[in-house]
Write a structure and sequence with these properties.
17 helices; 2 strands; two-stranded parallel ribbon; mainly alpha; globular
Length: about 550
């Protein structure tokens, strides 16, 4: 709730308050979102290796609280921001934020990015830890948890996209940031009060990412060694039979056999000292690396969906600025609140999907989640292609109305809007919202269930990292498209210039739709060949985490 308004309205803050050009403001938005998601890797590593998921969430949400507080202070005091100026008026010269004020802006903004990314990295895994995989009832409830997580995000998003956006636009950005800060403060209190009831994941002090890197380094260093015919001769740590902690040890598989060389002993004689982990790894380390490598193609196929999402947060918002935002004579809907439409639908359909559709599909397929994770992801990918196609058709209609009324060169805000309702944009938001429900939730479940216990937080980072790359690739793609089309269009590129009525956003949407469709067919090829990891009762080791004071007494 506290930060979703930033994802859709930050471009307005950068243009109207900090006086950035529209293209620069769009880049700042995608950079902020991309950084927020890529930082999930850092927090996930801290969570799994050093401080645990509960502490990671608490740390991240506290940093986010401080960042929002700084944004509220800057938005409130005139000395900390540029003088008031109408950037849409071509006769005025607006001063862009600079110097110490710019430093304050970006320090605060990227504190929010770090905090938001940290919550994304650790919170889903922390809450999923509360369910025991050995218990059939709790295993089903875990699947429902991911659906209800999305519902909670939708409810918070609905408040953010209506109340907070309205306050930002009509009462001031300082009030909007203050309300977000207060809501984060109460979230910290509520989350901390749940500590006596949580099952706490106990960290083992090793870095999963470093162990994965060791496998690749060792495999390269041992590339000239011959693999033994008997896989039991590969290196593995001694298993404590009495403790029976089997979830920490993975059996050898034949996939990606080139990585097995990382577990080859250099000589048959016992070495006087323990070999370097950068030259000799355990079979379990190697299998962990194989699991992640096996998921890379699925990961790559999800990047383009976020690339499409980035356009709904930038170009679609700018389209809405030129359109009629009236609901009634006295009520208007800000363009940044348009994502409220699919969110409202999701709030209704998620309980229906979870309580009616999933049980029905479960009876037909025998799968606890109704359909497989990859099937769910595939539905979302094809819907994202459809969303971009619809966006292209709507843009053609919007420009045709502007052309018919001789309004192609109208200046937003200073002159009347194009006589076409902003609700025409709701179709693309609606379809993409449904795609959201299938793909992103499906990916969270897929990554969480497919990786070993010690990589749980990093597993959720697969989703967030793919989204980060999608945002960064959006910036790159926009520049490539403009460069490739600058000599064949009057506007100097499909997306060039600040007059969205004169560029070719519709062609860009068609390009994204085609790319998404091709990506879907690649995904089908990859998904059909993916082999699910055999389920293990990983919660065997997690039973130790039921003793809450064990970790926090030190």
């Amino acid at each position: 709730m506290a930060t979703m308004a930033l994802a859709v309205n930050l471009i307005t803050y950068f243009t109207e308050v900090m006086h950035y050009d529209i293209s620069d403001a769009a880049n700042q938005l995608t950079n902020f979102m991309g950084t927020s998601y890529i930082l999930t890797i850092l927090v996930a590593t801290l969570a799994d290796t050093y401080i645990g998921r509960f502490r990671s969430v608490l740390m991240a949400i506290s940093v986010e609280f401080l960042g929002l507080g700084l944004l509220a202070l800057q938005a409130h005091y005139p000395k900390l921001k540029p003088p008031l100026c109408n950037i849409y008026d071509p006769s005025t010269h607006c001063v862009q934020v600079s110097g110490g004020n710019a430093a304050l802006l970006f320090v605060a903004l990227y504190m929010v990015a770090f905090g938001s990314g940290g919550v994304k990295a650790a919170l889903p895994s922390h809450m999923a830890d509360q369910f025991d995989d050995r218990d059939d009832k709790e295993a089903k409830e875990k699947s429902s948890y991911f659906n209800w997580l999305l519902l909670a995000l939708c409810i918070g998003g609905a408040i953010s996209l209506t109340l907070i956006v309205w306050i930002q636009d009509h009462r001031g950005w300082d009030w909007g940031f203050t309300i977000s800060t207060v809501s984060i403060f109460f979230a910290i209190i509520v989350f901390a009060f749940g500590l006596p009831h949580y099952r706490i994941h106990v960290v083992n002090g090793s870095s999963a990412l470093i162990e994965i890197a060791q496998v690749y380094v060792a495999a390269v260093r041992n590339r000239k060694l011959q693999l033994p015919e008997d896989s039991t001769q590969l290196h593995e740590s001694e298993i404590d039979k009495e403790a029976a902690i089997q979830a920490d040890f993975l059996p050898h598989t034949n996939a990606f056999s080139f990585l097995d060389k990382a577990a080859i002993h250099a000589s048959s004689e016992e070495e006087p000292q323990k070999p370097s982990p950068w030259k000799l790894c355990t079979v379990t380390q190697v299998e962990n690396a194989k699991i992640l490598l096996n998921m890379v193609p699925i990961f790559c196929c999800t990047i383009i969906m976020t690339l499409c999402l980035a356009q709904l947060q930038t170009f679609s918002i700018q389209q809405g600025v030129t359109m009629d935002t009236n609901i009634t004579k006295h009520i208007q809907i800000p363009p940044a609140s348009l994502p409220m439409i699919p969110i409202t639908f999701l709030v209704i359909i998620i309980p229906v999907y979870d309580r009616i559709i999933v049980p029905f599909l479960r009876k037909l397929t025998g799968i606890p989640t109704g359909i497989t994770y990859l099937q769910r992801v595939g539905v979302g990918l094809i819907l994202s292609s459809l969303s971009m196609a619809v966006a292209a058709i709507v843009e053609v209609k919007r420009k045709q109305v502007a052309r018919d009324h001789n309004m192609l060169d109208e200046i937003p805000i200073l002159q009347p809007p194009i006589p076409i309702s902003v609700f025409w944009l709701s179709f693309q938001y609606f379809i993409f919202g449904i795609a959201d429900m299938f793909t992103y939730v499906g990916l969270l479940e897929f990554f969480y269930h497919q990786v070993p216990r010690d990589l749980k937080s990093i597993s959720s980072c697969f989703l967030w990292t793919s989204m980060s790359l999608g945002y960064f690739f959006s910036t790159i793609l926009v520049k490539i498209v403009n460069k490739a089309t600058e000599d064949i269009t009057r506007s100097g590129g499909w997306l060039a210039g600040n007059n969205i009525n004169r560029n070719h956003v519709n062609l860009f949407y068609w390009l994204l739709s085609l790319m998404s469709l091709l990506n879907f067919f690649v995904y089908l090829f990859v998904a059909k060949r993916y082999k699910y990891r055999e389920e293990t009762h990983e919660s065997t080791t997690e039973n130790a985490s039921h003793d809450l004071h064990k970790e926090y007494s030190n």
